[in-house]
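Lecture notes, continued. The same structure-token format from the folding unit now serves as the input rather than the output. Read the line below as a description of shape only.
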């Protein structure tokens, strides 16, 4: 539980090409963060329900109904990939 609470707090950045996958998750906070991120909330099938582009430190999201996970990307990654609500994402290791 502690690792889940900490998430990206205390880090200087999230490297390009990397992401943090949090499951289960239907909302996040940006308290104590040092950099903005793109937050992408998905349902159980990977369908994007809500995007928060360039979510800045000290902000929080609303609860996203039906969200099962949040994928946190470096700010601008969602726009670069042309992600939109309704798209489906698939995680690769």
């Amino acid at each position: 539980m502690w690792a889940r609470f900490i998430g990206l707090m205390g880090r200087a950045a999230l490297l390009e090409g990397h992401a943090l996958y949090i499951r289960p998750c239907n909302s996040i906070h940006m308290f104590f963060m040092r950099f903005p991120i793109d937050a992408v909330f998905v349902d159980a099938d990977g369908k994007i329900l809500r995007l928060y582009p360039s979510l800045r430190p000290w902000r929080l999201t609303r609860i996203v109904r039906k969200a099962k996970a949040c994928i946190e990307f470096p700010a601008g990654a969602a726009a670069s990939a042309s992600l939109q609500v309704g798209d489906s994402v698939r995680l690769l290791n």
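Point for the exam: The first helix runs from residue 2 to 6.
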